[in-house]
Design brief:
Blueprint (H helix, E strand, L loop, with lengths): L1 E2 H8 L3 H9 L7 E2 L6 E3 L3 H13 L4 H8 L5 H35 L11 E6 L2 E10 L6 H10 L6 E2 L5 E5 L9 E10 L9 E5 L2 E9 L5 H15 L1 E3 L4 E6 L11 E10 L2
Antiparallel strand pairs: 1-3, 2-3, 4-10, 5-8, 5-9, 6-8, 7-8, 7-12, 10-13, 11-13, 12-13
Protein name: MerR family transcriptional regulator
Pfam family, one: GyrI-like
InterPro entries: AraC_E-bd, DNA-bd_dom_put_sf, GyrI-like, MerR-type_HTH_dom, MerR_fam, Reg_factor_effector_dom_sf
């Protein structure tokens, strides 16, 4: 048998961690001296130690590793754990890619003196318009595309005539930012008269005065644009007067390159009394 110090050297696991593994029942010593309390390990336990290290390097937590070790001989069970971890890793990879894009975008915004580039905000009026619309509660803001797909699919045979200019818009009805279950409506301005479908409704929208700013690039920039609009309202004596909306001047239907998107972030406003 191996003393804990020798086992630590051979397994490349610290004595402190070996004691922790013992306490949580992950890798218990083969023998504990009843008088001294010294821990001794079987040489064959080096294989278990190696398996634990491999699973840790894959990103498994100790509680899951303990469960896996109890089923290691079952190939199907082991494969099941690995498939789950592969899916989790893919999702984490997507999150990291999004973070990298955000970092890259922020660096692009930085001026040489280190300040963030501003956005030009202006007061405009969106005219009265007739629209095809789809409004639903969707899982998250990033799922907005499913509403556009519904509109496309349910109006494919209608030969819709689009207004000029044709406003593609998304209206966000929740009063505050929500992590999930968001109430969103997409609209496209059209000319003519059409029958409602199961999900697509045709209606006339009133004109609205709004403060807006246009930006080019990925949608991650919207928070900075929101800040610019809020600052403009405070500096010019305006207050918000309704739910916000985006106008997509160039969007996914026009280009597959997010850096070419052109979006106008809009908030209905009125002059403070």
């Amino acid at each position: 048998m191996l003393k804990i110090g020798d086992f630590s050297k051979l397994s490349r696991i610290s004595i402190r961690m070996l004691r922790h593994y013992d306490e949580i029942g992950l890798l218990k010593p083969g023998k504990v001296d009843a008088f001294t309390g010294y821990r001794y390990y079987e040489e064959s336990q080096l294989l278990d130690a190696e398996r634990i290290q491999v699973l840790k390097n894959m990103g498994f937590g100790l509680s899951v590793i303990r469960e896996i070790m109890g089923k290691y001989a079952d190939t199907e069970e082991l494969k099941h754990f690995l498939e789950i971890k592969r899916q989790e890793t893919a999702e984490q990879e997507q999150i990291l890619r999004q973070r990298k894009h955000l970092i890259d975008s922020t660096i692009e915004w930085m001026r040489k003196d280190g300040s963030i580039m501003g956005y030009d905000v202006s007061l405009k009026t969106l005219p009265k318009r007739y629209v095809a619309s789809v409004r639903q509660v969707i899982p998250a803001y990033e799922e907005e595309g499913r509403l556009w797909h519904i509109m496309r699919d349910e109006t494919a045979d209608m030969e819709l005539r689009f207004d000029s200019p044709c406003y593609d818009m998304a209206v966000f009805y929740d009063g505050d930012y929500k992590e999930s279950d968001v109430d969103v409506e997409v609209q496209r301005t059209v000319i003519g008269t059409y029958r409602d479908t199961e999900h697509v409704k045709f209606k006339t929208m009133p004109s609205v005065q709004y403060a807006g700013a246009v930006f080019q690039g990925r949608y991650e920039k919207i928070t900075r644009v929101n800040e610019a609009v809020a600052r403009w309202c405070a500096d010019n004596g305006y207050e918000f007067n309704g739910v916000g909306f985006n106008i997509y001047h160039v969007g996914p239907k026009d280009t597959e390159n997010p850096e070419e998107f052109v979006t106008e972030v809009c908030y209905p406003v009125k002059k403070k009394q």
